[in-house]
Amino acid sequence: MAYKISDKCVACGSCIDQCPVGAISAGDIYTIDADSCVDCGSCASVCPQEAIAPAE
């Protein structure tokens, strides 16, 4: 199951460098490419806003 970024994202950039496969794209609210995400959770563990969670 891939992770997704909610609208709590403040685009701080903490998660981008943590993704081992480069699945996170920058923007007003960052997004995760579900097809590339390897479900490692590295991004969620560093998000200061707790805006990243497993997709349902």
**Global structural class:** mainly beta
Strands ordered across the widest β-sheet: 1-4
Radius of gyration: 10 Å
Write down how many β-strands occur, each being a DSSP E stretch of 2 or more residues: 4
- Spell the H/E element sequence: EEEHE
Which segments are poorly predicted (pLDDT under 50) over 5 or more consecutive residues? none
**Mean pLDDT across every amino acid position:** 96
Helix content: under 10%
Major β-sheet annotation: 2 strands, antiparallel
Number of continuous helical runs: 1
In terms of DSSP E residues, the strand content is: 15-25%
Principal-axes shape call: globular
The end-to-end distance, rounded to whole angstroms, is: 8 Å
Task: Fill in the keyword field for this structure.
globular; two-stranded antiparallel sheet; 56 residues; mainly beta
Explain what this protein looks like in three dimensions.
The termini are close together. The chain is 9% helix and 18% strand. The protein has one helix and four strands; from the N terminus they run E-E-E-H-E. The strands form two sheets. Strands 1-4 form a two-stranded antiparallel ribbon. The chain has a two-stranded antiparallel sheet with strand order 2-3. The chain has one helix at 42-46; strands at residues 3-5, 24-25, 31-32, 52-54. The longest helix is centred in the C-terminal third of the chain and has 5 residues, at 42-46. The protein has 56 residues and is mainly beta.
